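F.,

This is the one I mentioned.
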């Protein structure tokens, strides 16, 4: 991939979960909102980049990624039972935001932000799943390259700024799951498209 790093892509695609032979729609780009990324910057899945790297504007594609190539296998060690008091505001449990199926931002001891989905709430604990929502899934992509060109220095600087949080995207780096803060960002499954 080294010789073709730093290509800009605008891609239209439909994503299906094809685990166990089923075909379930996961997400679809819209005509006015393509999936935009620059290769080599960690925005798109590495296996996704490899599949589209040699394609040109107008080329169509269809490919499937195994769980290992996509978001990894589910790991039950990433399902945590946390003390309910962690989710308190002003001494009271935040039942307005902390609900079953809600995706919540959590901060680790070293300041990193992770997102987890609430599985269950008891009198004392909140059960959170920190696995990526698509972990353990076989993913099939079908789409078209809307535009591609060698990324300019300006484009790379803009994307680097967005990924670091300076562009208002709070450093979601492609795994924000729709929680990019209030910086005018549109987070897709694989991208953080801020202020385009």
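My design for it:
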């Amino acid at each position: 991939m080294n010789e073709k790093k730093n290509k800009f892509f605008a891609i239209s695609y439909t994503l299906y979960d094809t685990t166990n032979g089923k075909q379930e729609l996961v997400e679809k780009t819209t005509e006015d909102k393509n999936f935009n990324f620059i290769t080599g910057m960690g925005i798109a899945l590495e296996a996704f980049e490899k599949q589209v790297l040699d394609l040109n504007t107008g080329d169509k594609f269809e490919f499937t990624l195994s769980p290992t190539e996509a978001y990894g296998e589910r790991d039950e060690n990433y399902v945590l039972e946390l003390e309910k008091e962690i989710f308190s505001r002003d001494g009271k449990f935040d039942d307005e935001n902390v609900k079953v199926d809600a995706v919540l931002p959590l901060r680790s001891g070293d300041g990193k932000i992770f997102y987890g989905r609430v599985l269950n709430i008891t009198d004392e604990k909140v059960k959170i799943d920190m696995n990526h929502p698509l972990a353990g899934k076989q993913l099939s992509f079908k789409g078209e390259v809307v535009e591609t060109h060698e990324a300019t220095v300006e484009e790379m600087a803009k994307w680097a700024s967005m990924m670091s949080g300076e562009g208002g995207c709070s450093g979601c780096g492609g795994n924000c799951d729709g929680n990019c803060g209030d910086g005018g960002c549109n987070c897709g499954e694989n991208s953080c498209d801020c202020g385009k």
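The chain has two helices and 13 strands.

Talk soon.
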